[in-house]
Design a protein that fits this description.
The complex is a heterodimer of chains A (297) and B (301). Chain A has 297 residues and is mainly α. Helices cover 84% and strands 0% of the residues of chain A. The chains are: A mainly alpha (297), B mainly alpha (301).
Chain lengths: 297, 301
């Protein structure tokens, strides 16, 4: 399981899990699961096109993911956001189908692009994935406070001069970058599952934003590691394990949260930080820093 | 006369109207897109695009499961779309807040299972074409013997929407008013999910499981751009759905002679591309007319 050819797979998958957990936290917070679903599938069309003309898969993926993210952000501003997202998404998938139908040996490649392929990760792919991963983590770290404000309490964000519109675009681009690095490994259809399942579970377990972010990364690491091991043993596609484990974690977290709520005397024992909703905590912290300067949190 | 013939031959490639698979595609594809366009009007009004899309993606799971056990894919699409609708309802599709999450979780798990089924199916039968057929559809391989089944399910979906028309409209405008008037909002929501599941599983067969959203959302969203009256929107959505599908079939049939030669482009690609362009055009025209109205009102005080 840890043989030479598997080492790259473990490293790449770990990076993907960290990035997906972090980016996914904001996806869940902003309620943009649909966007997280759409952008990877647009990337699928790009990857299919790239393999048709013989360019690197990453180039195609990246170009299409960023373009579709920007298109959703700009076109969706007016009118019906979700309808536009849905149509952009299926058009990209249709385009992917067209590219693949032009290609001679398409069936197995379609499967890998849609459902993921961890084995056979080259050193070159490792390098690109690493660079993109560092870029998205850096972007999340740099944008953490304004993005959190804009996602959770847009009115406070606007009052402090944080543009919610530009934050939306920044976030979409980060999703696109995270997509580009992850799709070759977990597949276009399952990328989304990782970006929603783990953070969704984390969000149910704690209401403190930074803790939820950390928990989200931790859960997504567990999901990916277990998925690789299980996929190695059974030879079944990794996407199956990622998708099912995401749902299992979410359901378990839901059960745990409702059990904790229903315990007698829960409200009396709970410290203030868990009694407040995440929105209120962010609001409080934002007001606190207003008097103490930008460094306090 | 021969010139006219040449032009007609250029548009409709020879053999288009005499080929049996093409006739079935025209009939079934057309009917299915009308049904899903009509059902889709409420999907757009209720803001359930993501749910509609997820039903299609879950259909992938069903279709691949049916492929694995060797059953007709339509029943796979249908039963899994039903299961998906039930799960989403259970997880709280009604509340706007948790809706995205619930849909996403169900969808993720379903796609994971689909990956497994497709893998097992291809291992067992060593045929790989099924992945493409299930995901992206192929209108030209629908058997004529399936026409009655398609017709029956289409009628069922249309009847459901007809029965639900008034309460759906009311609860789309305001859930509170609707429940104050004694409309069973939850039951209506569930029945509507059922209609959506039927429409989606039908279009899973024609244009493919992960593209079925296009015929559900696209024509309806475009129609609602053109008109605000719900009755007219249904008519527009149906017409747009029918036209794009038929045009898509004709173009796909012609594309046999286009580069890179020797292969037909997928029908689904044309249908989806046409739907997106119709939506963008309708969006543009509605914005232009809004600007004209605004200009007129500012000029004449």
């Amino acid at each position: 399981m840890f043989a030479g050819f598997m080492v790259n797979a473990w490293i790449v998958a770990t990076m993907v899990a960290v990035v997906a957990g972090a980016v996914g936290f904001f996806t869940v917070l902003r309620g943009s699961a649909f966007v997280a679903h759409a952008v990877p599938q647009a990337g699928f069309a790009g990857a299919a096109g790239a393999s048709l003309i013989g360019v690197s898969t990453f180039a195609g993926l990246g170009a299409f993911a960023v373009l579709s993210a920007l298109a959703i952000g700009i076109l969706g501003k007016r009118g019906r956001h979700d309808a536009m997202t849905a149509l952009a998404l299926v058009f990209m998938l249709g385009l992917g189908a067209l590219f693949l139908s032009w290609n001679q040996e398409y069936a197995s490649e379609t499967f890998a692009l849609l459902f993921g392929e961890v084995l056979g990760v080259s050193n070159n792919q490792l390098l690109v994935t690493g660079l993109l991963g560092v870029a998205s983590i850096a972007a999340i770290a740099a944008l953490y406070r304004p993005l959190l404000l804009a996602s959770v309490v847009p009115d406070v964000a606007r009052a402090r001069g944080v543009g919610t519109q530009s934050m939306e675009l920044c976030f979409l681009v980060v999703v696109a970058v995270a997509t580009t690095m992850s799709v070759p490994v977990v597949g276009a259809l399952l990328m989304f599952s990782l970006m929603v399942g783990a953070p969704g579970a984390a969000r149910l377990l704690t209401k403190r934003p930074l803790l939820a972010l950390g928990l989200s990364v931790a859960i997504s690491l567990v999901i990916v590691w277990v998925a690789i091991a299980a996929s190695y043993i059974t030879n079944w596609p990794i996407g199956f394990f990622v998708g099912v484990l995401g749902a299992v974690f979410f359901v378990a977290a839901r059960g745990f949260a409702s059990w904790r709520r229903s315990r007698p005397g829960h409200a009396a024992r709970a410290p203030l930080s868990t009694a407040l909703r995440l929105e209120d905590q962010v609001r409080l912290a934002a007001n606190g820093t207003g008097s103490r300067g930008p460094e306090g949190a | 006369m021969s010139q006219l013939e040449a032009i007609l031959n250029g548009i409709f490639a020879p053999g288009l109207f005499t080929s049996e698979p093409v006739r079935v595609a025209f009939l079934v594809g057309g009917a299915v897109s009308v049904v899903s366009a009509v059902v889709g009007v409420f999907t757009v009004i209720r803001g359930q695009s993501f749910a509609g899309h997820s039903l299609g993606d879950l259909g992938t799971t069903g279709g691949s499961g049916a492929f694995l056990v060797g059953a007709n894919p339509l029943w796979g699409f249908f039963s899994f779309a039903l299961i998906g609708a039930g799960a989403m309802e259970l997880f709280g599709v009604r509340r706007q807040q948790g809706r995205d999450m619930a849909t996403g979780i169900v969808l993720g798990a379903g796609l994971g299972v689909a990956a497994l089924f497709l893998y097992l199916g291809t291992v067992e039968r060593s045929t790989t074409g099924a992945t493409i057929t299930i995901l992206f559809g192929s209108m030209f391989v629908i058997r004529a013997s399936m026409i009655p089944v398609f017709a029956g399910l289409s009628v069922l979906a249309l009847v459901l929407v007809g029965l639900l028309y008034r309460p759906l409209l009311l609860s789309a405008v305001s859930e509170d008013i609707a429940s104050a008037r004694g409309v069973p909002v939850r039951a209506i929501g569930v029945s509507y999910l059922l209609a959506m599941a039927i429409a989606v599983s039908l279009s899973c067969v024609t244009i493919g499981a992960i593209l079925s959203t296009a015929t559900l959302i696209g024509p309806a969203a475009a129609a609602l751009r053109v008109t605000k009256r719900p009755g007219l929107a249904f008519a527009w959505a149906g017409i747009i759905g029918l036209v794009v599908t038929w045009l898509g079939i004709v173009l796909a049939y012609d594309s046999y002679y286009w580069p890179p030669t020797g292969r037909r482009w997928p029908v689904s690609f044309f249908v989806v591309a046409l739907i997106l362009s119709v939506y963008l055009l309708s969006d543009l025209s509605s914005r232009l007319s809004a600007r004209r109205v605004a200009a007129r009102t500012t000029k004449a005080p």
